[in-house]
Amino acid sequence: MMPETTIDPRQIIDEAPLGPRQYLIYFILFLTLAIDGLDTQITSYLAPVLAKEWEISMANLGLVFGIGLAGSAVGALTLGALGDALGNKRIIVIATIAIGVATVAMGYANTVTELAALRFITGFAVGGSLPNLIALVSQFTPKRLRASLITMIGCGFPAGAALAGLMATWLLDSEGWRSIYHFAGYLPLLLTPVIIFFLPESLVSLLKRPDGQVKVRQIFERIYGAQLSREVQFRWANASDKVVAPLAAIFRDGRALASVMLSAIFFLSLMNVYFLSNWLPGLLSQLHSTPHEAIVATTVFNLGGMFGALVLGRLIDRFGYARTLCTSLLCSGACMLMLARFGFTGQSLQLAAFVGGFVVLGGQGGLNSLPALIYPDHLRATATGWAIGTGRLGSVTGPMLAGALLGAGWSSADVLSLTALVPALASILLAILAFKLMRRSGAQ
């Protein structure tokens, strides 16, 4: 039993009401993720201009997009684990600087190879930043609001991606594509000092350092206004005092099966998300009405995703992740099946697209909070990085599989119907995972 002068920091975090300092932390993390989304998506909007100026086909730019996804997967796996070992804030700062420098350098690129190499760096940094952001949010959030705030801050990424489109529309003709890269790169560099001065370091990692007790006390006095005796010692229950290999740790102590299943769930979910992101406009234009309506429906689909993430995050906190996310995944499959088999046009198509985005993209936003809900604090960035990194393989598999099926003569309706099975399978795996974790918790 802990002595009376020992406090678990989570007790203070869970019991304290949210105040201005916490909201400032969440806002900075939201901005960081928004800039990540902007710098990730900006190349997509500039690709036609690059292809024309460099006299290459759009297909040749596929290398840039593919290597960006590969960098994101590698970054999530490696920097997620490093964040748990060395400190989440430290990795966020390094990643943000790397994103800024590489994006500015893109403005000086003259070949596809140069652009692809820089895109790998930005993808690596963005992929590594996300699990550390999620881990830091979860650590400074009361348990009762954890999923809600993770999904809310996660909306920063699509918001930044949307801002990239606006920036390209406003500035491309007047400033040129190189200036847009420069502007997009300066934003994370300007944000870096704000992160350094106002964002706290992970409490778990601080408590592993010689001056950790002093640093943690200072954080609680500054953020929570807690007046604590100098004799009080902080100890994060169940966290290791030694810096070990976090990636190996998520496969020890009975966590191996959960980690494998989590990877499979993210693989299936991201396979579905990226399949729809890449193919939805084309499939809808073949199945329903005009290409213009299909484009509008795809935009509405993304808006539905932002609303879905916010609502589903709150539902997870209220009813638990298993009920909420399993239901969302099953509804995803049902929506895809309806889009494939029922004739939607006009407003009915927009409504169906909104509901589809709500459960598909919103469900992925809610799913991003899952590792933070089922893994201990000192492994959250690693577990999130593992899930997102391995799940990125699905982001490549989904679009490729759809392309192969369409090339083999499958109809758009048949492809959508088949892929509706993907979220249903993910729901089954999630239900099994939740059951096993519940049994394990009951046994302990």
From TrEMBL:
Under SUPFAM superfamilies, the record lists: MFS general substrate transporter
Recorded coiled-coil stretches: none
Q: Where is the Major facilitator superfamily (MFS) profile domain?
A: 25-442
Chief location of this protein within or outside the cell: membrane
The record describes its membrane topology as: Multi-pass membrane protein
Check the record and name the Pfam families matching this protein. MFS_1
UniProt keyword annotations, A-Z: Membrane, Transmembrane, Transmembrane helix
Query: Where does it live in the cell?
Result: Membrane
The residues that cross the membrane are: 23-47, 59-79, 91-109, 115-137, 149-171, 183-207, 256-275, 295-313, 325-344, 350-374, 386-409, 415-435
UniProt protein name = MFS transporter
Source organism (scientific name): Duganella lactea
